């Protein structure tokens, strides 16, 4: 099973807004489209293939779908059931020294980069070293969508949340469990599958723009992007297979994320060079795809993550 389907999925119709994405997710939820296998239980390729498909269709949709499915997997790993037909997210950023804290069963603080800010029903929120579930209709949940200024991923409905003494529904796992569990690393590689799908979606649009009029330089760049996409896809597939065999993937998950991030950066660089300025200026979907991809892959921390990977390689004593 390959992660990238041979036929590109049908993209979402324009205009694409937080409201239209919410409608699509709520259509997908009851028909089982968001019911993915829990990571590490024998069907990881199937899970990552679905995540790549979401991203290829629309990166903002993929971001929200991945957040929901990650939350459901986390609850399952903790032996807890999700609220039926509720849309979930995982809000765990501690960017810039922000973050929320838990005191006597109540949550207070600021959490950034909360996707699905105004549309989700529930969220799993990092509170210090504890993960808690919050009903987002509760009093004291203050949303600040204006904190998100980027045009890239603007439809992901992201922003800041201020929690003001909000009662939590339940604690999810003991303190420290969220980042120590096996699914934490696998979830991060699932995000890379969404990136890969988003990169493939940009290349799909490039192919449409080139039909019947490609020169040799454009074709060379397109070939280079194809090689990069397939290389990252094969690495993800091999890593999923290793995990499904119960083998220790070592640093392979970090390698997967770095490989996909590098591929996506190559797509962001080469795709506009292939098409020229026309599609960037006159094709809203293509321009949005490039902008979304450029923003979303910054969940990878660049040289900092590569340095950590290099440290692991040096410790293993082999490339």
Automatic annotation (TrEMBL):
Keywords tagged on the record: FAD, Flavoprotein
Sequence ranges assigned to domain Acyl-CoA dehydrogenase/oxidase C-terminal in this UniProt record: 176-295
Record-given protein name: Acyl-CoA dehydrogenase
Organism from which the protein derives: Amycolatopsis rubida
Similarity-based family: Belongs to the acyl-CoA dehydrogenase family.
């Amino acid at each position: 099973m390959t992660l990238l389907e041979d036929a590109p999925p049908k993209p979402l119709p324009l205009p694409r807004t937080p409201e239209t994405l919410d409608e699509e997710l709520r259509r997908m939820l009851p028909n089982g489209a968001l019911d993915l296998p829990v990571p590490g239980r024998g069907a990881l390729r199937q899970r990552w293939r679905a995540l790549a498909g979401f991203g290829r269709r629309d990166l903002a949709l993929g971001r929200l779908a991945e957040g929901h499915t990650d939350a459901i997997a986390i609850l399952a790993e903790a032996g807890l059931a999700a609220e039926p037909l509720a849309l979930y997210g995982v809000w765990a950023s501690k960017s810039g020294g922000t973050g929320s804290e838990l005191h006597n069963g109540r949550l207070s603080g600021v959490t950034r980069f909360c996707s699905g800010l105004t549309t989700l029903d529930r969220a799993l929120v990092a509170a210090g070293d504890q993960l808690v579930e919050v009903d987002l209709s509760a009093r004291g949940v203050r949303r600040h969508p204006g904190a998100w200024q980027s045009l890239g991923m603007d439809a992901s409905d992201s922003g800041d949340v201020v929690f003001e003494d909000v009662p939590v529904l339940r604690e999810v796992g003991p303190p420290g469990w969220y980042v120590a569990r096996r699914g934490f690393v696998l979830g991060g590689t699932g995000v890379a599958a969404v990136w890969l799908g988003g990169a493939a979606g940009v290349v799909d649009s490039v192919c449409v723009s080139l039909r019947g009029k490609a020169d040799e330089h454009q074709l060379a760049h397109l070939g280079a992007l194809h090689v990069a996409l397939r290389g990252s896809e094969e690495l993800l597939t091999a890593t999923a297979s290793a995990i499904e065999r119960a083998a220790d993937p070592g640093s392979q998950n970090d390698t997967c994320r770095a490989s996909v991030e590098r591929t996506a950066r190559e797509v962001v660089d080469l795709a506009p060079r292939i098409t020229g300025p026309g599609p960037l200026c006159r094709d809203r979907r293509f321009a949005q795809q490039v902008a979304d991809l450029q923003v979303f892959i910054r969940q990878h921390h660049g040289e900092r993550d590569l340095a950590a990977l290099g440290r692991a390689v040096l410790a293993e004593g082999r490339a």
